[in-house]
Design brief:
The chain has 7 helices and 6 strands. The relative contact order is 0.14. Strands 3-5-4-6 form a 4-stranded mixed sheet. Strands 1-2 form a two-stranded antiparallel ribbon. It is of the alpha+beta class and 156 residues long.
Length: 156
Amino acid sequence: FADRAGNLGSEQRFSYSAIGDPVNVASRVESLTKQYGLPVLVTENTAANASDLALLEIDLVRVVGRAQPVAIFTVLGDDVYARQPGFTSLFVAHSRMIANYRGRLFAEAAGAAAEARKLAPPTMHAFYDNYANRIEMLCKNPPPDDWDGVLEVLEK
């Protein structure tokens, strides 16, 4: 929730707005939708409050102005879709991809990404293609020992 919400400004000019760290983070995350090729991204706080929806964790990112990384998720559907066998299969393959990626098991992550892409709706294909490219780069140029799997987002 926003640190402050309400009318801001003066008597001559004001507008209803929200300010604070959660609003800044949400703005940074919203700007990542193009980079990930996904129509919707939400933070871990939103995901925790909507756990009945069909959610997939997408990445850990460190946005401008924040030292701590934040997990980001995409929403694929409602609670009915979340219980469908197709989504369950996708969730398992996708979760395996994320776990292997963070565990530096890049060949296994690539296999899980290919499996997940086959199970995913077309709106997620660009995401899996991008992740496959990222994994391929990490296979060719392994990260340093202190790599934490967090994507540094350097732009607002």
